[in-house]
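> forwarded from #structure-qc
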């Protein structure tokens, strides 16, 4: 399946509701599964959240397919490890099964869980026999995904001794801050520092409704589109300031690229503003790696020299997102310098080469959405456009309002 996007030359003028935050919704779903007193203001329609809800609601014995979401697999693994008497096998797509899970499995087993690899060591499918976990203290060392810590934080209140975690380093720390905020909103005490977290046993909570915000990571793709457009403005209802989401920094990252923002009665208003041409921009996205694709694509298409650091997790996402950026840049005649956690570009050709061949989205929702604004330079065709359903099912409907 392919989608062809015509070139867009006119200014943008549109208003649409972005999806609820998948990150917040998934955390809320797990807490609500542990504590029936907890309800949510809304449920994300993202495919990852739908799969997670179904997985948490699954019969406690048998095999469950969790889809393509790393969050779904990691949160479901932690949840079922605490369900005493259950015996369940979790598996996902072939790509998901190969994604990193061993650090979480090792941590859970160290806390008393019984989780075994069905096929290859360190990979899903996983067979889980639920236990009443005692908890205690655990040193995680250098943590390569904040989702491992988050999964443990969410189930920590069910452990009879609570949980104290320490680590030497962890990527995407703002996601731990979000998790702590949701736990506190549910009435569960959390002590979070840069290198540790402590959560006591909590047998029950008072009835509470957790507020699920609109998704700030989705705002990045509309900042990209507006930055590359001839002008105009976009209205995104439902966004408020401040936010529990670290990705709310996106509006500040795009400010030097010509995007102004303000909060109105309707929500978030994005508009174009005049800025001096940046000489060389530096970003560190260690706390907000999901913003990398739209931000770097904008820098490339505006031909701004840059270096972006803090990309430790990008090679292990749905695809190798750094490798995908290199490929798209080369197709336009741009050479990138990359490492395990950075992308740099110091010079550009006088004219970018048009991309005439269909582009692969690599089964990655953020890659697909970051490629759409190429249409402000030339018509493009994308393969597997439906992959956006993973986080933003209405993306192409909203895109069609621009043309």
């Amino acid at each position: 399946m392919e989608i062809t996007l015509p070139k867009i030359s006119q200014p943008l003028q549109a208003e649409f509701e972005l999806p609820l935050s998948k990150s917040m919704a998934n955390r809320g779903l797990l807490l609500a599964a542990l504590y029936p007193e907890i309800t949510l203001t809304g449920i994300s329609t993202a495919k990852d959240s739908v799969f997670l809800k179904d997985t948490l609601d699954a019969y406690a014995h048998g095999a469950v397919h969790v889809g393509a979401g790393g969050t779904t697999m990691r949160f479901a693994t932690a949840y079922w490890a605490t369900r005493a008497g259950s015996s369940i096998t979790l598996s996902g797509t072939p790509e998901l099964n190969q994604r990193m899970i061993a650090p979480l499995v090792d941590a859970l087993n160290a806390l008393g869980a019984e989780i075994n690899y069905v096929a290859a060591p360190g990979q899903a499918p996983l067979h889980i026999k639920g236990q009443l976990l005692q908890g205690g203290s655990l040193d995680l060392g250098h943590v390569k995904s904040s989702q491992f810590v988050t999964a443990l934080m969410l189930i920590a209140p069910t452990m009879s001794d609570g949980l104290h975690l320490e680590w030497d380093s962890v990527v995407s720390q703002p996601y731990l801050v979000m998790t702590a905020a949701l736990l506190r909103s549910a009435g569960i005490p959390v002590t979070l520092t840069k290198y540790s977290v402590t959560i006591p046993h909590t047998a029950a909570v008072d009835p509470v409704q957790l507020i699920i915000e609109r998704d700030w990571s989705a705002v990045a793709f509309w900042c990209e589109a507006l930055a590359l457009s001839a002008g105009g403005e976009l209205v995104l209802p439902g966004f408020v300031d401040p936010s529990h989401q670290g990705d709310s920094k996106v509006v500040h990252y795009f400010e030097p690229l010509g995007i102004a923002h303000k909060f109105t009665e309707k929500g978030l208003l994005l508009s174009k503003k005049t800025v001096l041409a940046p000489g060389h921009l530096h970003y560190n996205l260690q706390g907000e790696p999901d913003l990398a694709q739209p931000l770097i694509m904008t820098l490339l298409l505006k031909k701004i020299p840059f270096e972006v650091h803090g990309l430790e997790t990008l090679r292990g996402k749905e695809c190798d997102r750094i490798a995908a950026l290199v490929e798209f840049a080369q197709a336009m005649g741009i050479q990138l310098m990359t490492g395990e956690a950075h992308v740099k570009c110091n010079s550009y050709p006088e004219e970018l080469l048009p991309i005439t061949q269909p582009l692969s989205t690599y089964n990655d929702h953020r890659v697909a959405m970051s490629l759409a604004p190429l249409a402000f330079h030339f018509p493009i065709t994308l393969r597997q456009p439906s992959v956006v359903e993973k986080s933003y099912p209405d993306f192409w409907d909203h895109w069609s309002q621009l043309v």
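QC bot note: The longest strand covers residues 232-237. Residues 183 and 342 are 33 Å apart (CA to CA).
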